[in-house]
Design a protein that fits this description.
Length: 322
């Protein structure tokens, strides 16, 4: 009869002690109720996925590709952070409460030890649920982290070369379809109105048909010269002189004016490449910052979830022992 009296003193109540099960009365009984932990973790993981899908749906419904429609980027980011934190609080709290409420009753255990075990059960339920959720969302988390690492590496070094090569490749490919390099080459061979009229008056129809393919050949050659010079740096003087001769023959300009046009056009090409490099750097920097902020806030929200799960488990354990 000593055991019921001890149980009554432990819980501070004068009512009859609860039924004592043999497995719980043994000293070597496990202090961890893995069944309760797995049940709480499953509930937390499922609730996290449900709230994540709800958040994605609400987020996609609030944005719009049209200008002056939908929420701004800053509002969307703050809302996403708040929703993730709220989801962690609700899901982790529910999982921790279930882990504490469903765990095995401990008898002849000090109150402080019961509090510690309940806290541990809530923390373990949160840990199992976090691992399960991370396993299901490996592709999303991995892409976010790898994107941040690649952006940081691009900013640290090599982004200018990559951007210049990409922009140069795009220009060289677009020479025949009116792209950037095609535009610069066309502007290089633009004729003055007076010079074009004089050339058309002095040239015969037979000569015009014999040289019909020359403009396309000259434009492709100039584009290749520009692309080679862009990779090495400034345009060599020999190339400036040669392109100036071609431009002078095509446009009727003097050699000096044609060389000046060549230098100005090449400077415009270089300026466009510098703008492309700056845009690439800016995009990489924004991606790096976004990945860093997202990772930090995810870390904070997970810590909040661990605390809520541990605290809710103590509430569940008290209700279980009441």
């Amino acid at each position: 009869m000593a055991l019921p009296n001890a149980a009554a003193d432990e819980f501070g109540r004068g009512r009859d002690a609860p039924t004592v099960y043999p497995d719980n009365a043994r000293e070597h009984a496990s202090a961890v109720s893995w069944g309760a932990i797995v049940a709480g973790a499953a509930a937390a993981a499922a609730l996290s996925l449900i709230m994540l899908m709800l958040g994605i749906g609400l987020g996609l419904s609030s944005v719009s590709p049209w200008a002056h429609h939908g929420v701004s980027a800053a509002t969307f980011g703050v809302s996403a952070i708040l929703w993730i934190t709220f989801s962690q609080i609700v899901a982790s709290g529910m999982g921790g409460y279930l882990a504490g409420r469903l765990r095995t009753r401990w008898l002849a255990v000090h109150t402080d030890e019961v509090y510690f075990r309940d806290t541990a059960h809530g923390f373990l339920a949160w840990a199992v649920a976090s691992l399960a959720t991370a396993a299901l969302l490996t592709s999303v988390i991995g892409s976010m982290v790898s994107g941040g690492i690649q952006a940081a590496a691009s900013v640290a070094g090599g982004v200018a070369t990559t951007a210049a090569a990409a922009a140069g490749s795009q220009m060289s490919k677009s020479d025949d379809d009116g792209g950037p390099m095609g535009y610069f080459v066309d502007s290089l061979f633009r004729k003055d109105v007076n010079a074009a009229a004089a050339a058309s008056a002095s040239a015969g129809s037979g000569a015009m048909s014999g040289h019909a393919a020359e403009p396309a050949i000259a434009g492709s050659e100039v584009a290749r010269i520009f692309m080679n010079a862009i990779r090495s740096g400034p345009l060599p003087a020999d190339d400036v002189r040669y392109i100036g001769q071609v431009v002078a023959q095509r446009t009727g300009l003097t050699q000096q004016a044609a060389e000046k046009r060549v230098s100005d056009t090449y400077a415009r090409v270089q300026a466009k490449l510098r703008d492309a490099e700056a845009a690439a750097k800016d995009a990489a920097e924004k991606g790096r910052k976004a990945s860093a902020y997202a990772t930090l806030w995810l870390f904070i929200s997970l810590l909040i979830g661990a605390f809520c799960a541990s605290l809710a488990a103590t509430f569940g354990g008290r209700r279980r022992d009441a």
